[in-house]
Amino acid sequence: MRWLRAPAILPPGMRVYAIGDVHGCADRLRALHAAIAEDLRAHPPREALLVHLGDYVDRGPDSAGAIAAAMGFSACPVVNLMGNHEATLLAALDGDAPSATDWLYYGGREALRSWGLPDWTPRGEWAAGIPAAHQGFLRGLALSHRVGPYLFVHAGVRPGVPLEAQRADDLLRIRGAFLDSEADHGAVIVHGHTPVRERVAEIRANRVNLDTGAVYGGVLTCGVFEEDRIGLLTA
Question: What per-residue confidence (pLDDT) applies to 2?
Fold first, then answer.
């Protein structure tokens, strides 16, 4: 594992694994899960947590498998965060026609195929074709999770807004205002959503970006946060 200096410090004995945007790359997610389980066996911490940063679905070949893998990991406690792609799919399932159009355009067709549904399946039939367990998983996703000095979210936060007052849409979709900011947000923000051009995790003083473009020819990255360092696992 490659270790880098972290912008914050976790208490001794605490380890947090965080995985960036999966986008249907289920095989890579399962490979990272196996690496995490092996790391836990080889170097057991006092306390461990895995955080999935959202965008399990769309664009890649196996959204259904990615959700199943996220649901099935049991080597340590898990927090599953919502991404903008899950939020758009849920809005579509709840009857919002513009969201359905957006979802199909941004990779939903591949997700439908992974559930065995043809591209042209009418929106009103999607819910019947997506397993109830997968829909329950999607509806149970969290918007953020705080561990010590780190806040884990999908996209980022609005600079200048207290963490407890952040809007859901910013947590799920913000880019420029957050990515360009050098402000202290009140926590180091660990996020995905915007693929790093160099396909290597980006570590800054106020944020850590773990979206390394797995579905775009990059890799799927897991950041391993421990004391004053960050390890990087990739698949």
Answer: 80
